[in-house]
Amino acid sequence: MNTSIILFSSKKGTAERVATYFGETLNIDVVGVKFIDPEILKNYKNVIFVVANYGKAEAPPQDMIFWNKLFEMKQTDSFAGLNFAVFGCGSSKRAPYYQGFAKMVIKHLNSTGAHQIAELGERDAAIDDESSVQTWPLQLKL
Asked: Degrees (nearest 5) of the Cα angle 106, 109, 113?
């Protein structure tokens, strides 16, 4: 079993940049979700998701194949034994959709047996503050 991986789903590159920073900070491989199948998540102990919140709480369109497959996995033990955390990138100017997709990912993974190891991390594009990007990964116990 592999230990940890960071997966990103990015529209304009922010989530990819944040995921790359997390990977360098934590010394963990970083991969775009469009390059993998959700089934491989079962091969990991820890998965960190860095996701863009697009449109009305949606995934970036180019990553929909991965997300549709993930959300189709609905058995309560689909991801039993998997630890996960989610960091969302979006803008609070898009309320009420701010972090909506990131919250959907958390809800789904919790309902399929995965264990959330950190509170939702957030990068708000409406505020010019990168402190959450620098501090959030430090709380992860991987």
From this structure: 135
- CA separation, residue 103 to residues 24, 26, 43 (Å): 25, 23, 23
Number of structural domains in the chain: 1
Query: Taking 90 as the threshold, does the pLDDT of residue 84 lie above it?
Result: yes
CATH number at residue 21: 3.40.50.360
3-state helix, strand, coil in the chain (%, to 5): 40, 25, 35
Domain hosting residue 120, numbered range: 2-139
Residue 115: how many other CB atoms lie within 10 Å: 14
The answer to whether 18 and 123 are in contact (CB under 8 A) is yes
pLDDT of amino acid 56: 85
**At residue 70, what is the residue type?**
L
Peptide bond into 96 cis (omega under 30): yes
pLDDT digits (tens, 9 = 90+) for 48-69: 999 998 788 889 999 999 999 9
d(CA 9, CA 92): 19
